[in-house]
Amino acid sequence: MGLAYTIDTPLKVARFGISSVVSIVADNLPEDMRRFYCHQQSEEFVPIHEGDADFRARRITAYLDLLHRILAKQMAQLRAEPFEDGREIVKYFELLPPASPIRNLYNQMRGLEEGEAKKSLQEILRRKMIAGSIDVNIMTKCDKVNYDKKGEVLPAEFNDAMAALRGFANCQLQSAVVFSAGLNPRLYSYCETFADFFPVEKGNTQKKIILKVSDFRSALIQGKFFAQKGLWVSEFRIESGLNCGGHAFATDGYLLAPILEEFKQKKDEMGAELFGLCNAALLKKGVATYLQQPIIKISVQGGIGTANENNFLLEYYHVSSTGWGSPFLLVPEATNVDDHTLNQLATAKKDDYYLSNASPLGVPFNNLRNSSAGEERLTKIASGKPGSACYNKYLSFNTEFTEKPICTASRQYQHLKIKQLNDGDATGEVLQMQINEVTEKECLCTGLCNAAFLKNGITPPHKASAVSICPGPNLAYFSGTFSLRDMIDHIYGRKNILNQVHRPNMFINELNLYVDYLEKEISNSVGIITGKQVKYLHKFKDNLVSGMEYYKTLADKMIRETEQFRNNFIEELHTINQYVSNLRLPEQPVTTNPVMSVA
After folding, report:
1. Domain span at residue 445?
2. Mean pLDDT throughout 13-34?
3. How many domains would you assign to the chain?
C-alpha cells in the first residue's frame, strides 16, 4: 500500500489479532516514526544518524523492536481490562469472525450470570488472546547500491534491500518477511546468513519467509531456490496481477482463479518436493532438520470486495487466508492517510483510479488522479522545471547520462533526457509524447512517505508535503470513511458498506482490467513490431480465452450467491468473451530466406 500507509498499522490493529505488513526498505521513515513514538511513549530517543556504521539496518531494527515493545504493553493492558461494553477487550472478541470457536466461547461467557463460572471463562478468554503478526515487506527490486563518505561503492550487504533484511533479521520480532516483485538471488541467498530463518529443536523458526507470487510456476521456482539452501517458504501470497494496489505486475494474461486452481491441485505435490530439497540441504549443512513437513500456507489478495467472495476463496480454493489492502485506506483507525487525500479517496469516482507510468522503476503503478503529488508534478512542468529534488535516492537506478545511478523522477535526469529529446529528430506531437513519458514519473520516495507525517502532525523532511497514493481499482466500490468495526463487519458479512456503483464479481473485474491492458499493448504495437512482441500478444489473448473457459464452469460453484448473481456472471463473461474474440492482433512478421546463387 506504500511506505507511509501501514508504517505503524501494527500499533493500531495488532492488539485486536489483526496482522499487517510494514514496508522497511526506506530507512528514513522508520527512523522518523521511531522518534515520534519514543516521545509518545516517554522513551529516550537516541538517533541513528546517516553515516553511522550500518545505519540503515540499525534504524530498521530499532523501529521494529520499538513496535514489539509497544505491542507487548498494549496486550498486557488489554488482557487486564474488565469485560465491560465499550472496552477494547470486548472489541477484540466482537471483531472475530462469527464461526470462530473463541467467539463462540465469548458469546457463551456473555450469556452467564455473574459468578465464578463467568470469571473462569473470562480468564480462559484472556489466555487465548493473540496479537496480530507484525510482518515486514521488502520489494526485491529496491536494492540500490550505496556509497561511503568517499564516494566508494559499499559491499553488496549495504544495498538497500540487503540492509533492510539484516535490520529485520536482527530484531526481536517473531514474524515474517514478505518478499515482493520477483526473485532476487543475492537477496534471497543472504537469508542463509541469519540463524533465525533456520529450524530449532522443535522444527519452528524465529523468522518466516513469505513470497508474493503471481502464478504457480513462479512460486515453485522461488520455493526451490530457498529450499535448496535449507530455507522454508511458509506462505505463498498470490496477488492479482492488475486488480491490486501499488505496483502492478501483470501476468501474460493468466487470470487469478485459474492460478488458484493450479495451486489447489498441486500444493501437496509442491510441498513434498520442497520438503525433500529443504531437509537434504539442512542435513548437508549439519544443522537441525524438520521432523515433519512444515505447513505451507496459500493466501490470496487483490480485488476482494464482499463477504461472499472472501468465503468462496476460503472454501472453494482452500486458501489459508485472504488479504484486504486498499479498502483499509478509508479506515483512519488502521492506516495513515492525510485529511486531503482521505477526502479525495472518500469521494473518488471509478475513473479517478488508473494504471499509470508514474513509477521510476518502469513498472505500471496504480494511481489516483489529482493527488497532491500529481498536481505538484504538473505545476513543476508548467513552470518549466519538471522533476523532483532527489533527497532519498531509493529508486536511483538509471545510468543513461551519469556514472553513478540517478532516479528517472529526478530533476537532473528529466533535464538531461528532455534536452536529448529536443536535440533529436522527433518533432511536434511525437516529441511532446516522448517528453510526457519522461515527466510522468513521480518522486515516490517522498510522496509515499508524507501521509504519515501529515496525519501525525510531523513536519515532513525538506517541507515537501505532496502525497502520492497507490490504491487498487477495487476502491472505486467503496465511498466515505469507515471505522475498523465497519470494515471488519463488512469482510465477515455482518454489514454491507459498498457504494451504489455496479460491481461485478472480483474475477470479472480482473478480467476487464486484463482486456484493457491487452488493448493498450495492441495500440502500443502499431508500427514496427518484432516477432517476439507478436508472440507475446497472441499468448496473452490465448491465456485470457483459456481463463474465460474455466470461468464458464465456476458460476455454479458460487453457492452462496443468488441465482440472479450467477446468471449475471455468465452474461458478463459472454460479453467479454465476444469482445476479446473480435480483437485484431498484429500478424507474425513475414520473413523470407535470401535466394542463393552460384557464381
Report:
1. 355-489
2. 97
3. 2
Any idea what DSSP says for residue 129? -
The residue among 242, 246, 245 whose CA lies nearest residue 259 is: 242
C-alpha to C-alpha distance for 80 and 230, rounded to whole angstroms: 42
Which DSSP symbol is given to 556? G
436: buried, middle or exposed (CB in 10 Å: 19+, 13-18, 0-12)? exposed
- Looking only at the bridges linking them, the beta strands covering 353-356 and 365-368 are antiparallel
How far apart CA 28 and CA 39 sit, in angstroms, is: 17
Grid coordinates given for 592: 523470407
Contact between residue 513 and residue 242 where contact means Cβ atoms under 8 Å apart: yes
* Residue at grid coordinates 493468466: 254
What's the rounded Cα separation, in Å, for the pair 406 and 243? 30
Residues 536 and 443 in one domain: no
Distance spanning both ends of the chain, measured CA to CA: 68
Do residues 22 and 10 touch, judged by C-beta distance below 8 A?
yes
Q: In terms of domains, do 374 and 446 share one?
A: yes
Do the Cβ atoms of 366 and 246 come closer than 8 Å? yes
CA distance 488 to 596: 73
Instruction: Give DSSP secondary structure letters for 219-259.
Output: HHHHHHHHHTTT--EEEEEEE-SSSSSSB----SS--HHHH
Q: Do 544 and 508 lie in a common domain? A: yes
The mean of the pLDDT values for the chain is 95
Distance between CA 396 and CA 407 in Å, rounded? 4
510 and 473 inside one domain? no
Is there a single domain that holds both residue 376 and residue 437? yes
Last residue of a domain, one of 432, 455, 489: 489
How many angstroms separate the CA atoms of 198 and 286, rounded? 12
468 and 519 within one domain: no
**465 lies in a domain?**
yes
In three-state form (DSSP H/G/I as H, E/B as E, the rest C), the secondary structure along 39-58 is: HHCCCCCCCCCCCCCCHHHH
Reply yes or no on whether the pLDDT at 599 is more than 70. no
3-state secondary structure of 398: strand
- Placement of cell 542435513 in the chain: 283
pTM to 2 decimals?
A: 0.95
Q: Is 438 within the bounds of a domain?
A: yes
* Cα distance between residue 357 and residue 439, in whole Å: 10
CA gap 301, 266 in Å, rounded: 19
Whether 420 is in a domain gets the answer yes
Largest CA distance in the chain: 110
Do 556 and 471 lie in one domain? The reply is no
For residues 535 and 450, membership in a common domain is answered with no
- pLDDT band, very low/low/confident/very high, at 589 (cuts 50, 70, 90): low
Q: Which residues pair with 297 in a beta bridge?
A: 235
Number of H helices, E strands in the chain: 21, 9
Domain for residue 392, yes or no?
yes
pLDDT of 283-330, one tens digit each?
999 999 999 999 999 999 999 999 999 999 999 999 999 999 999 999
